[in-house]
Amino acid sequence: MRVLAAMSGGVDSAVAAARAVDAGHDVTGIHLALSRSPDAERTGARGCCTVEDARDARRAADVLGIPFYVWDLADRFEADVIEDFVAAYAAGATPNPCVRCNERIKFAAVLDRALALGFDAVVTGHHARLSADGVLRRSVDAGKDQSYVLGTLRPDQLRRAMFPLGDSTKARVRAEAAARGLAVADKPDSHDICFVPSGDTGAWLRDRLGPRPGPIVDAATGETLGEHDGSFAFTVGQRRGLRLGRPAPDGRPRYVLDISPVTSTVTVGPAEALDVWHLAADVAAWSRAEGVDVDCLAQVRAHGGAVPATVTARGGELLVRLREPVRGTAAGQAVVLYDGDRVLGGGHILRTSAERAAA
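^ tRNA-specific 2-thiouridylase MnmA, sequence as received from the core. Prediction below:
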């Protein structure tokens, strides 16, 4: 097959491309230029899409002996991922930009262009597996599993995807890279949000949205406990950085329970008030029949655990009834649903409920 290998400049994508070559595919490497003003160098494990990353990807392609190109998708990334991220926070939601990037860039814009150019599939370095029947599964390396950030991809997108690293641990990938003479063997993994290299999401959003001051209010009493300069700097479940004027009467920590962007109000309260028992999400992908209850596992964070749940697809939504609560879940996050290690589908959370008997 003619396959396009998306090469970020990291170790995973380099080894994924190498394995595609070993499998006998006709491989072409591409690096996605997603930043309009890329930095020359990375800052440790923060950020990506730097000039250094592009050079590392090119060097890896040279070692593998494959053609290599840089595709400038900065405008598409700005519109489909960054602007979506900003708008979601401004509306009080908590988006996952990695999920959006996979949906709208790697397996939409890149895949569409690849198919138009005559390629058969796109190869990435995600730690996930694809069964012969096209079913997405967790990686064998549970600590590096990335099926969650791929869990909203449609079957037609997965049929054109290749994830060669799903059967390997990260340690094995690094050892293989070193044995192949790839200079990225010991390169740190990138962390946090790639387009916020400072790691300070609140400050980055403030630069984009400007200050929007408002009160921090106690959920139980309605008392104003402090002020903030932008509700977008907070996420449901947050504890640090609240800068409250006085402690709770019982001395227990307070957490963000709700964000109202219309009034710029942040509501805080005790940890148990964060418990969520029901979710409703849009249907990004779903492999079961409409209106049928499906027992499964639900995961709401990339690095969180999965909890038992029952899911029904109805009226264009996934209705998720959790058998044990998840804490600090907010609209905008993705929920991905599993049958063992098999991904059944997922969507983006529209609303949550703390009521155990909620419909």
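Helices lie at 11-22, 51-64, 74-90, 97-116, 147-150, 155-158, 170-179, 201-209.
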